[in-house]
Amino acid sequence: MATVDQTGIPNRLTRPRQAASDVPEWISGIPVSWWVVGVALLFMPVVAGNFVLFQIFGWAFILGMIALSLMFLGGYGGMVSLAQMSIAGLAGYMVAILGPSGVQTISLFWPWWLYIPVAILIAALFATLIGALAVRTEGIYTIMITLAIAAAFFYFTRQNYTIFNGYTGFANVVPPELFGINWRRPIPFYYLTLACAAISFAVVVYVSRSPFGLALQGVRDNPRRMAALGFNVFAHRVFAYTFASIIAAVAGILMVWQNAQIAPGTAGLPAVIDILVIAIVGGLKRPIGPFIGAFIYVILRTYAPDILLALNLPGDRFKLLIGLGFLAVVYWSPDGVLGLWEKWRSHRQTRGDPLTGQGGKS
């Protein structure tokens, strides 16, 4: 056991060395339910078809990563950015421009080991500039600035034909065949998106507990006090944009590979709002929330038109169901689906277990 000094902070320097037979702390701290979900996802191709793997889970992982970048800014930094989809779209455009595509007059056909990191770097620089502008404001003004940047990016890509090929965009943008594997086939692409989503989730959890993450949360709660303690509030907020952009950029590259094309509508204003809805529905307090919201969104987006057609309603009004679901979740739980789950667990513990009679109020 670690000792505690006069400040109440555990003193890790006096902690005894862990025995070789003991399970590492970071492994023992993972809930059993997470292990169950992880094993289920690993063996999902055994029971799921190609459509479910590629279109449902692949898309949910990609949207979840973009929403995760928003969750990191909003949940840990207190900054709501509507430009995360634009950052992902820019990374996707850079892959199409720098790498191979069907538009041979514009694409440069660089090797994959060069155009992928350059695309992520350009997206990170773009996000850093956005952050440098957005962090000078607060609240609704931050939302409006990032929304204006997202709108400007959409109209610029649609009207520029020299670099972004205008309204048509780029087609035949596929991942490179590494190790002799076609990564756009359903099973390989499922494992590729699953690995990227798992790594992004683990990195966000780690960073949130690191000195930078804890300082960022302190800046969120009381920036004046953090500045008085010697922390650079401006630098922490801007770097948060840079860090979150890397996750969004990787998701943007996967999104382009999944669709095999990119056009201005990929990062249009409806897509920008969708990311905000996904993050809020899942929950902005925990990194798992965006993936839950993305899975719910993809399910509704995929099957809502069929439900509407069965009810003799126009199938193109599927966003009506998504909007109603969004309103219901926000009304009953501002913390999203995770908030509903926590309320249910708290209510169950308050009432007690009906079988044993334990767990109720004392």
Automatic annotation (TrEMBL):
It is a multi-pass membrane protein. The keyword 4Fe-4S does not apply. InterPro entries: ABC_transp_permease, LivM-like. GO terms for molecular function: branched-chain amino acid transmembrane transporter activity. Keywords: Cell membrane, Membrane, Transmembrane, Transmembrane helix. The chain crosses the membrane at residues 26-46, 52-73, 85-106, 112-133, 140-157, 189-208, 229-256, 262-284, 291-314, 320-341. GO terms for cellular component: plasma membrane. Its main location: membrane. Pfam families: BPD_transp_2. It is found in: Cell membrane. This is Branched-chain amino acid ABC transporter permease. It comes from Neoaquamicrobium microcysteis. The lineage of its organism: Bacteria, Pseudomonadati, Pseudomonadota, Alphaproteobacteria, Hyphomicrobiales.
